[in-house]
Amino acid sequence: MQSNSSCGLCASEDITPYHQDKFRRYWQCKRCELVFVDICDRLTAQQEKAIYDSHENDLTDLGYRRFLSRVSEPLLARLEKRSAGLDFGCGPGPLLALMLTEAGHQVALYDLYYANDQKVLAGQYDFITCTEVIEHIARPAMVLTQLFSLLKPDAPLVFMTKLIIDKARFSTWHYKNDLTHIAFFSRKTFAYVAQIYGSEAEFIGNDVIILTKPKVPTAPSEEAL
């Protein structure tokens, strides 16, 4: 099994085969332990959006609210009153932004396909949410650097994504079967990200990760980027 891919997180070409199924080949970076889909096995942008368009995101769905409360509750506990944030990758139904707005905060929206407003990417924010997004991104280093640049010092960057546990369980993991999912993080990978950006990482439950930007801004480590 050969790949023309390099790691989208740390740019390392020191990668090893991780898994293969009838649809795709998966590689793991030996430096940051990101697992990612071979570049030749990824969807086109048009194919990807067609899948997103088929999703139902009902803003009145109580089950969806409970799901997103795993992000909103720990985030709200950290925020000052009337904070201003960004929901990055909000999708066509930005329920999390609505929940945070209901709690008294201002939330700007950005999504490549559904809210592509470049002006919001020039602001400075008290918090940023990135829920069920990072696993769709081919070059997470670029996005992470951008998001940290938009955060104020001591502000949280909140992710929701399922985490890899081990190689054996990956083979039967339903999360990898979504063809729009191309980058898979573990606790070790997020710990690597935290180290690179000089931040602190907190893991909440099985799928919520909060990275806090340092009070004294630091440039990303050169070894990653």
TrEMBL record:
InterPro entries: SAM-dependent_MTases_sf
One Pfam family, short name: Methyltransf_23
Gene3D superfamilies on file: Vaccinia Virus protein VP39
Known EC number: 2.1.1.222
Molecular-function annotations in GO: 2-polyprenyl-6-hydroxyphenol methylase activity
Annotated GO biological process: methylation
Keywords, comma-separated and alphabetical: Methyltransferase, Transferase, Ubiquinone
Name this protein carries in UniProt: Ubiquinone biosynthesis O-methyltransferase, mitochondrial
